[in-house]
Task: structure prediction
Amino acid sequence: MSKVGYGSLSWRLKPVKVGAVASLPFFLAAMQLNGHKVTSDYELTPISLPGASGVVALDYFAYDRSTDRVWVPASNTGNVDVIDGSSDAVWQVTGFKTGEVELRGRKITLGPTAVSVGDGVVYIGNRGDSSLCVIDAQTLKREEWLQVAPPSAGPAAAPDAVVYVAATKELWITTGAPPIGVASADKAIQIFDVSEPRHLKLKLKIPLDGSAEGYAVDNQRGLFYTNIEEAGKTVAIDVRSHKVVAEWKVHDDLQGLTLDSARGFLFVGCGDHVVSLDVAHGGRLIDSLVTGPGLDNIDFSSDQKLLYAAASVTATLSIIEAGDDGKFHLKALVPTVKGARGVVAGKGETAYLIDPAEGRILKLIRK
Result:
């Protein structure tokens, strides 16, 4: 399948089975972590991103269940890459502006880095020019574009997370880059009305006492969860009243969030481990499991009841079963590569990881 205007590039590499003898150093027979030797029944397939030469600044990416596609904002390339879940073919939505920004004393080129799947559309946040863009989820055609801050305001005012909230037909935008020390300029979440999915209309701002980092949305209960970086706490925001209605002090080093909305469990990435909170009953801490350091965005498969957490320092992916009591059981520990962080669950037991150093996505499947 090809898309006129975006090409029909298909980039594939042969799968390498975990546990087999392989030339790539990251495929090992087993890993020792936290005293438990766990072998794996999974394999990883690297999917190169077209136009990538070396490091690609990868951050948020998303799986669209309705189309079986993975959306990958490939930042400094100025493209958004779209991976077909069945064939691994890659298409590109091109022409996004990039810009040079200063982070930690170094100037780097950034472009689109955030994505959220909406109602028949996909929303893209661009750090390169502090903008939002709407893309048709089927045709990949770029539609409305909106500036959310002047580019001169820098990364503190640029979109970080971009989150579609189906319950209220809103798009929630966080700003800054808290994990690398760039606090949100306004310490607020910007809310856009997207009742007309292809049109963005600024609605209001939710003031916070710090920078929002990570998110999970419970459309069933009408709650939005995020971490407040400076305060080291996790909060719940009512999506209709736009008020903070609960907060928990889980850990000082907070990373990604994901949710089991059916059973009311919130999973939080905390530096080198994950925890489960019973948010359906007040937020009681249920369990904790060490994954290794270097967590970023984690994800939960509601179909499989599996939690995925990629540790970039130990180069491992923890696949964790979450029981009906919210307790964890480590099902598999899959060797990955140094720096691989951030994971999204796909169809079945498929998942995808970002590998920024090599400018590619790692596709995980069950053997």
